[in-house]
């Protein structure tokens, strides 16, 4: 990051005024471009929770979620953070849409001694930072679950699809580590450019050694491109994808072509049966419907869960929370059962959950266990 910009941001982000009435939660996600639907789900899942909390006045103050559009651009994400800290005086940074769009904001969170909570990523690039507390399992934990399940059916030859950038390569290394820990030969990899259409050369590289499956660490658009291109040639190598693929968008983008795709999930399914049997899923579905009539999916459910965990930390921080006290409160939360999904935080344990479930896309574009 440009040092002058960082210094300016720090100068703008002095302590919050004691008379501030609202608790401002700052978020930077993509609200325009091809990932806009995902960004809106991230925003709305949290808004649904905060609207319910504000109506009950349980905190004695209103929570104001300020969501800025980063168009899935790293530089814009950083500029958004500077604005959230300066102009909007955010108390917490929350629910950023990827590790790539989070990294440059971490020094600013550290300079302001504040919480950076629940980025939508299992990347190791985020998980060791002192100000970051995560909700979800790591990509290594997801990959380990995939490797275990695939080995059980005799599929032990894979190729990894990953982004050719700092975060993508880190994710590739995490996946390789999962294979190594399982005693399986390390797979090869095919690197692709983030935000670009998958080229035929990459499709050919994925299939040339006849792997048993493609393990995708990318978002859904790359997997969709692969399934379409491979399908046109008469058959695709099966895909197993980490949760970053955004499962609902994958199902909608290619429909039947994605049937049989395995996706690791880091939160319970938002399906109708869980809305009956799991109190947390039921609560989130009802809150989102009350907010805008929306239908719960994996993305909005994860955001809802993250928002509920943040509310618990805000309660613990007391009636006059500050950036520092909210950060400290999150670190002393201990075990928190949100109604069928538990998180555990401590000063030396910033990663709330290691829970992973494998699902498969079945008929009717439904993910089932």
Summarize the structure.
The protein is α/β, with parallel strands linked by helices and 369 residues long.
Structure description:
With 369 residues, the chain is of the alpha/beta class. The chain has 2 domains: 3-136 and 274-345, Response regulator (Rossmann fold, 3-Layer(aba) Sandwich); 139-265, Rossmann fold (3-Layer(aba) Sandwich), CATH 3.40.50.2300. The chain has helices spanning 3-12, 36-56, 74-86, 106-111, 124-127, 139-152, 166-181, 200-207, 220-232, 247-254, 272-277, 279-292, 298-317, 323-331, and strands spanning 23-29, 63-69, 92-94, 116-117, 132-133, 158-163, 188-192, 213-216, 239-241, 262-265, 334-337, 342-345, 357-362, 366-368. The strands form 3 sheets. The chain has a 7-stranded mixed sheet, sandwiched between helices. The protein has a 5-stranded parallel sheet with strand order 2-1-3-4-5, with helices on both faces. Strand 6 (158-163), helix 7 and strand 7 form a beta-alpha-beta unit. It is globular. The chain starts with a helix and ends with a strand. The relative contact order is 0.14. The model is unreliable at 1-19 (pLDDT under 50).
What key phrases describe this protein's structure?
2 domains; 5-stranded parallel beta sheet; Rossmann fold; 7-stranded mixed beta sheet; single chain; 369 residues; 14 strands; 44% helix; alpha/beta
Q: What percentage of the residues does DSSP assign to strands (E)?
A: 15-25%
Gyration radius (Cα, Å) is: 20 Å
Strand order of the largest sheet: 7-6-8-9-10-13-14
Number of domains: 2
- Global outline: globular
Parts with pLDDT < 50 across at least 5 consecutive residues: 1-19
């Amino acid at each position: 990051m440009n040092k002058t910009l960082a210094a300016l941001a720090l100068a703008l982000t002095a302590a919050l005024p004691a008379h501030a009435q609202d608790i401002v939660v700052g978020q930077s996600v993509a609200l325009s471009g091809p990932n806009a639907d995902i960004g809106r789900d991230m925003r709305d899942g949290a808004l649904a929770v905060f609207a319910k909390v504000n109506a009950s006045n349980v905190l004695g103050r209103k929570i104001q979620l300020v969501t800025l559009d980063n168009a899935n651009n790293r530089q814009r994400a950083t500029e958004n953070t500077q604005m959230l800290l300066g102009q909007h005086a955010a108390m917490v940074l929350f629910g950023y849409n990827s590790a790539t769009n989070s990294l440059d904001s971490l020094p600013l969170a550290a300079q302001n001694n504040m919480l950076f909570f629940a980025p939508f990523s299992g990347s190791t690039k985020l998980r060791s930072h002192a100000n970051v507390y995560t909700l979800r399992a790591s990509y290594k934990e997801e990959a380990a679950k995939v490797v275990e399940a695939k080995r059980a059916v005799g599929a032990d030859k894979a190729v990894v699809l990953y982004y050719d950038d700092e975060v993508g390569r880190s994710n590739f290394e995490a996946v390789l580590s999962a294979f190594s820990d399982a005693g399986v030969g390390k797979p090869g990899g095919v690197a692709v450019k983030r935000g670009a259409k998958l080229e035929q050369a990459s499709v050919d590289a994925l299939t040339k050694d006849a792997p048993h499956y493609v393990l995708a660490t990318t978002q859904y658009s790359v997997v969709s491109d692969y399934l379409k291109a491979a399908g046109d040639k008469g058959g695709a190598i099966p895909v197993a994808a980490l949760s970053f693929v955004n499962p609902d968008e994958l199902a909608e983008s290619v429909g039947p072509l994605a049937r049989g795709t395995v996706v690791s999930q880091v939160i319970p399914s938002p399906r109708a049966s869980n809305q009956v049997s799991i109190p947390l899923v039921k609560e989130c579905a009802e809150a989102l419907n009350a907010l805008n009539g929306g239908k719960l999916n994996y993305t909005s459910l994860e955001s809802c869960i993250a928002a509920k965990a943040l509310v618990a930390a805000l309660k613990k921080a007391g009636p006059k929370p500050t950036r520092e006290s909210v950060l400290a409160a999150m670190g002393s939360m201990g075990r928190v059962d949100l109604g069928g999904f538990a998180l555990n935080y401590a000063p030396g344990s910033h990663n709330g959950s290691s829970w992973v479930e494998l699902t498969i896309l079945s008929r009717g574009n439904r993910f089932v266990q």
